[in-house]
Structure formats: structure tokens, C-alpha cells
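step 4 of 6: structure.
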Amino acid sequence: MKHQGIGARVPRKEDARFLHGRGQYVSDIILPGQSEVAFLRSPAAHAVLRGIAKPRGLESVVFTAADLAGIQPITAQCTVPGYKVSVQDPLARGKVRYAGELIAMAVAPSRAVAEDIAEQIVLDLDELPALVDAHAARATTTRIHEEWEDNLFLILNYDNGFEEHASKASVVVEREVSMARQAMVPLEGKAIVADWDFRADQLIVYTSTQVPHVIRIGLAQSLGLEEGRIRVIAPDVGGGFGYKCVLQPEEICVAWLALTYKRPFRYVEDRREHLIAGANSRQHHYRLRAHADERGRLLALDAEVTVDGGAYSNWPFTVALEPGQATGNLPGPYDIKGYRCKTYCVATNKPGFLPYRGVARTSVCFAIELLMDAIARKVGREPWEVRRENLVTAQAMPYINVTRKHYDSGDYPKSLDTVRREIDLDLWRARQLRSEPDGRRIGIGFASYCEQSAHGTSVFAAWGLPLIPGYDQATVRLVADGSLEVRVGVHSHGQGMETTLAQIAHEVLGTDIANIRVIHGDTGMTPFSTGTYASRSIVMAGGAVAKSCEALIPRLLAIGSHLMQCASNTVQYMPGRVVGPQSSVSVREIAQAWYRQPQLLPPDVDVNGLEATIGYKPQVDTGAFSYASHAAVVAVDVDMGSVEILDYVIAEDCGRMVNPMVVDGQTMGGAAQGIGTALFEESPYDVNGQPLASTFMDYLLPGPTEVPKFRIYHTETLSPYTAFGIKGMGEGGAIAPPAVLFNAVNDALRGLNVEVSETPLTPRRLLAAIERASAQRAPASVRSARE
Amino acid sequence: MKASAFDYVRPPDLAGVLDMLRQFSGAKLIAGGQSLLPLLNLRLARPTLLIDIGRTEALRAIEDRGTHVRIGAAVTHAELEDCLIPDCPMLRTVAGGIAYRAIRNRGTVGGSLAHADPAADWPLAMAALGATVVVEGKAGHRRLPADGFMLGAFQTRLEEDELVVAVDVPKLSPDARYGYYKFCRKTGEFPEASAAAVFDPFSRTARLYLGALSGPPQPLHDLAATIARQGLAAIADVAIADAVDRVAAGDSIERRMRCAAVTRALKEVFAE
């Protein structure tokens, strides 16, 4: 048998159905008698909802908050001091707080007719001033949530040795950087089919989610229904990225219809709805002040962070997650002794902030990495050199950083050295000295980060969230023909876990992965898990699969030795077999005995049989830290303001790789999204809070010609705390690209004194920066002549 | 995002199309649908009737007419990309750069001209090529110069009951040179700036147009004439900037991009 266990580049088992177009997504589920749901969404960003007039004759197929009797609003608690709870009714009640908020739903045999009905609903709205800018929203007397004394979800203050270390600094560098709001844009948006199963006496909710068990808890609370009477099924999911890790108001509404009418209803989010109501991530603003020595060693960092939190906090992770992660992760992979940070999470009239792949780290990496380059320019050294001297060293591991995060293992400088070598910095530096025939300017950029993955109970409990991850369980069952069923409560939607979890089971039991079925995405068929988010699943579910498989081995040995009539201490487990002194029996023969010939079993056989459910969490649950350095070369067209990526190198380390091909795929996908954040994606608003990018005409995504061929290099520094030393890595690719590309552009334009620091880098932003710089350079006489 | 209700017909021939167009004032023609379908789905367009001309034979031909080539209105961008018309090489260049192949497979030349998106390729290219738009309607047959066919954004000289049936593209001499440059934020997007130039010493043609403006493409005739006389090397950047300023208002960034587009189109013309 070819190597199939941990570390093998086996093709993904799930790809056959995906590549042949045979995946089954919620939209592929069509139940007899199914009705379609269309939502009427708020046209205003901020308004008092005075009345809703249903179209005459259609009252029975139109639903508003008044109809949804007994539904609990979405309220997410969190014990961080000063955090304010928002109350979000699934359908707006009394007030709307962002353009795109759900107000009413219409039901019809087809979506087109449902939309016909929805557009006949007449709203009586009293518009209020829209709070579009987070800084302005802090200052105004207009309130998004009337019962609040201001528009702040929370303020975080952190200080660890700032004054002491800042006082030793001889160099001060100040910068402001910001990231635009954007949507996550999974291929598949939200999608829900809900039905009532009379036989099971259960509400069946098919939903495109990362967290089916969490949605079951959430729906039970919202609908006031016993949990056992809800089954949540997440079939194939066309991308999550964090968009689908929270309870969605649409899920509550469609589930309520099925519960109330005891028949199937379906809702599928369209792209326009997604781009309007899903503009919910990345928007941070940073004021930074670095206190460094003359070599560029960063001694102390002072930061003011503003997160544009949108209108509502989500359940269960809350909007507090984002400012918390920003405050805690801003120091990045660096050995910084003094750190002070004040973070404001501001309510605005936009969709509520959700944790997008990278969760704050894309923004903090952007902030600290642009600052690192600015320090290098200030002290006149190469950015990679300054970066390298500031990185936590391998010798310092495990390292407790300035925000008391426990970096478990790694060689951060080595990853930076790798990308510097592979991008061939010296070659490009030489080429920069010559001018390009096409007039473009070449720049090279670097960025490093570390990524907390699979952080568990202690981290989330510190936030006092409504739902805290604990042990993840897996159920493994050897069936009569010797094949293996693996059941997990996490969900795989692009992570390849139908393959990688099988590889882990294979590693322990030796079963051919072709004969291992990984079952996930159904609360009726899998053990509980809080689901797939925070780069946790391969560590948590992977560990649980290993533990469960290991639990079967003594049972197999006991039955096997009995079948061979030899003493149990003379046998051992080999892949797929129990081997005795003279002979061996296969797992299949043992399974046959358990299921079909029980008269052959030993009298003291373990009555739990060939099935085990074991929970797992790492010994230290503060997270396994993956890390990477990225380097890129860009060519900047200073007439058009465009940026072409000429080369892109990634050196990453996520501990033991279960399947390097899956790691590559995750890294490439994430990096493509990072390029989107850097150069293309933006959800702008006008002063009235109206979204200005509601189709792909206006909301640009990187396409195949904008995403370079990433050259990826791996090292494997094991985590001391996790099974097999595995670290999570699902988010990493998306973290560094904005930082590395902006650093590359700034490198290209340093001769023009241009520094860009606001995503996405549109031609207009880039050219505006060039023009500002040239106006500053121009002598006063020329300047006045121009003006 | 589903269209509101509409009726759909596919008349057997051009006469049938013209009949339907005459009878139903709320009707809209559809060929490739690459602009219309999104507008329908967004419910920004709500025609009561769609008249499908995508398969109307009379609109599907490419014919050599001696001095010019006649391109049927329902010829797709992909068809022009895939065939080389010897005396009109620019058609292939332009067609191959429109949006993505999937769009080119359906989108049509006539549809692009009639839709009149200021950033679209064909209004600019056809103006630079000195093409003539052939239209049919109640009043009969009309021939309209491509330059001037677009009146403004999404507005043309077409009457309610008229449709574009073809576009006549003059043949170029073997000595002719052309340049076509557009700057798009990414592959497949509409451009931020675009320019087209056609220089044919045989017919003493010197045409230079600036596209992707708020309205129709604008000619830079004087600049083109000067370049034809003196060569590109004699032209200062400021002359290009002045020519651009005369035809298009815009901020300094728009101006910068437009000047670069014109310069690059001209460089293509005069590239060795």
C-alpha cells in the first residue's frame, strides 16, 4: 500500500464529486411542495420603522416581526467589562440599522414570484442620520442603539511595560494605516431549506454553515424549541471563511416558517444580497507609534485601533472577538517588550462585523508590517534586516509575548531567510538600479506573521462568550467488512478533511483510506463539536480521531489473540492486522467475529465493541502557532496606478503536515483572498450609508490572471502540545498579502517618496498618493503656478 | 435577483423582428444578453417583451463588400476573435480583449453598439475605424457614422422602432497601422481609460479617439493630423495632454490615465 498516513500527498477523496459537479449543496435540495422565500431588506441605513403595509390580498404570504410570535432576538453576551449587548430581531422591529437589514419575508412557489410580492410591500420609514464613519460615530449624539450611552460596543485598554521601554528609544516612527470594509464572497452564499419531519418529530434545517451543532443550539434558543427536536444538516458548503460560523437571522426566519407551517421552505442568498448585507469584515484603522533604537529594534509600540463593528454583535462569537484579536495580535511575531494599545469597537450603520479568515490578523499584520518597513526606512536599513532582528528567535521558544500569548514553537527568522533567498532579493535589488524598458518601477516586499490556531477553552472562556469550545469528540466504528466510519462534529468545506481525517485514522489503524468514510455536517449523525473556525479542526477533530482509533486497538488485540488462541501479551497491532507469535488475523476477521460470529469472542470481551467516541483537546489549549513569511516582487505602473505581481514566495510552517497538498491548497486559496483585500475588494458607502458596490461590476475580486503562481516552501516545527505536533493553518494565507504587497509597492516608489497605507490599493488611491508626493516635492514656485 | 415577468418571442426573420418592434412599444431586443440580463435580474430594466434576434440569420453574416467588410449585428465577439479578416485586423485584436471568453461567446457587436456603454470597446474601435452603423426601422434603411452614433451614456441615434442590423468596416491598406490600448483594473473589467488609433497612409487616414469617458468616444483629430504629418517623435507629452483636455473634463488622475492610454495606443501604432 502506498503511504497514506500523516504526511502523504494523497489526492482528496472529496474531489471526485466536486470536480464532476456532483457536490450536493443546499440549493440542490428540492423537497416536494417546497416554497421559496424572498426577503425585503431595508433600503435605508438608519431609520425608524413606522409601519409595514402588506400588499392587499397577499397578507397571508408576507411576514414581518409582528408575525414571528415567540421568537427570541439575537443577543450575544460577553463578559469583557464595558461590552454592550445589541438586540437584533431576525426581522427588524421598530428600527433599521443598516441598508440590507431584513424587514419582511414573502413566500411563493418560485423565487421570482416571491420577489414580485416582496417589492409590493410598502415601508413607512423615518430616516435618521446614518453613521458611516467609525470615528464620527464616536463623536455624535445620534445613537444606533437608543439604550446605549454612546456608540461603542467596547473599549479595550492594554498596557504592558510601555512607558518603561519607550523611554529607552531614540527613534520614533508614526504611521496611520487602514483597511477597507469588504465582504467574504464565498462561491455559495447563505442557503437554507427547512422542513418538518413528522416521523422524527423534528425540525430539519439544511443550512450552509461551518457550525451545525452551534446552529442547533442557537435555533433552539431562538425558536423556544427543545434541542432534540431540531436536526441541523450542513451538506456540501461552498466556502465559509467565517461568514457561516454564526447564527444567521435568515436561518431563524426560514426555520420558523417550517416549524409553523410544517412544510418545506427554502431561501438562497443571491450575490447582490451578499455584497450589501454581507459587507462585514476587515475594516480597521490604526494609529501607530513605534519607539525603536537606531538599528530599528522595536522597543515599544503604542497603538490606537478602531474597528468599525457595524450595527449588531453576532452570536455566539460576538463583535468583541475582532477588537480582542486586534489588541492581542498586533505585536505579531516580534519580540517587543513594551506595548500599549487602546482599541475602540464602534457601532455604525453597516452589517455587523463577522470574523473573516484571518480574524483581525490580516489587519494587524498589515499595520505592524507597514510600520516595520517604515522603521527600516527611517533608520536606513533593509526592511528584511530590521524585521529579522525583531523576530522572536527559535532559541526563545516557547515564548510568552508582550500580550501574554504563548508561542509554542517555531523558527520565525528561518522562514524570513527562506523567502529572502527564494525571491532572490539581491537580483531584484540590482535590477532596481536599472530602469525598466516599459517605465514601470520594481519593488520587493516582505511580511512575517504568526497565527494562533486551535486556541481553546481558556482563551474563549477569558472572553466569557455564550459558547466556549471544549473537547472535540470523534466517533469511529469498524464495521463488519473491516471498513471504518469516522464521525466528527466539525465541518469540512474546502479544508479537505474527508481526506486528512481519514489519513489520521489510517496512521493509527492502517485501514486503507479508500475504506474510511468521514461523516460530518449532521447533528443527527455526529458527536457534538462547536464546529469549524479559528483554524481548529485538524488539531481538534484530528486529535479526537486519533484518540478514538487508538481506543479500538486494545479491543482488537483482545479479540484477535482469542481468535488465534494465544496469550494477549504475545500479540501486537500492525496496520490492519493483529499479529501473534505464529499467525495473524485481519481487522476484517475480527470485525466479522464481533458482528456476525459472536460465539467466537472471548468471554471477557470489551462490550463497547468496535466503536468508540473519545474527546480530545491539547494539553495546553492556548493555541498552536503556525507562522510564515511572504515575499513578493511587484511592478508598478505610475501612469495607470496598477500593480502587477511578478513573483510571490511563501515559507510557512504549520507543524506536522497531514497532507502537504492540502496545506498548499489552503495557502494558495487564502493568499488569493489576501490579494483581493490588498488590491481589489472594497464595500464603500456613501454619506447616507448606501452601499456602493452591490454587484461584481463594482466589487472586484482577483481572478486567475491577477493571482500569481505562489511558490510555497514548508518547514515542520512540531507543536509540543498537540497530537502528532499538528498546527492549524486554514487562515494563514489570507493574513500576509496586503502587508507584503503594500511594502513592495512602497519599496518600488520610495524614490518618489510615496507611501501607501490604505486598502485596497486601487489605481486611484495609488495615483493620488503619487500626486500628493509630487506636489510636496515640487518647489513652491512651481506649486503655486500649478494651483 | 430574478427578473420581473416578461414575454419572449423569437421571430423567424428580420421582417418579423421589425414587425414586433413596431407593435410593442415596451419591447426590448435581446441578442447575447450580456448587458441586458443583469439589468433584468436587478429589475433595473423591466421590458414587457423580449425579442430575441440572437439567431436571426440576416444579422449573423460577415461579408466582404469590396471596399469594406459588413459585420452582422448579431455576430459575436468570439466569432470576430476566431476569424482573421485580412483587411480588418484590428477587429480581431479588439474582440479578443473584450471581457472574458464566456462573455465573448454570447455578446454581439450590434448589441454593444446599441447598448452604448461609454467604456465598451466597439463604440471606440468602430469610431477609430471609420465604420458605419447600418440600421433598419419603420423609416427604412439608415447609414450612420459610428462616430456620433452614441449620443451619450446608454443613448444612441436609434429610434424606438429601429435596430442595428450591421456595421460596415472600411478595409485598411497593407501599410495601415493601428493601436488599441485600454487600462482595466483587472482582466475582463470595463476600462478606466482607453484609446484607439488608426493610421493609413494609403487612404490618408489619421484617426485617434479617446474612450471610457462619461459620454461617447471623443476624436483627437488635430493631434492625429499633426502626428501623421510630423511623426510621433515630434509630439511632446504636453501636446497630448492639451488634446485630451480639449475633449474630456476630468480630475488630474483621470487626465493622467487618459494621456497614458493615448500615448500607449500611439506607441503601438508606431512600434517598430
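step 5 of 6: annotate
 - Residues 782-787 of chain A have pLDDT under 50 and may be disordered.
 - The CA atoms of residues 16 and 717 of chain A lie 32 Å apart.
step 6 of 6: archive
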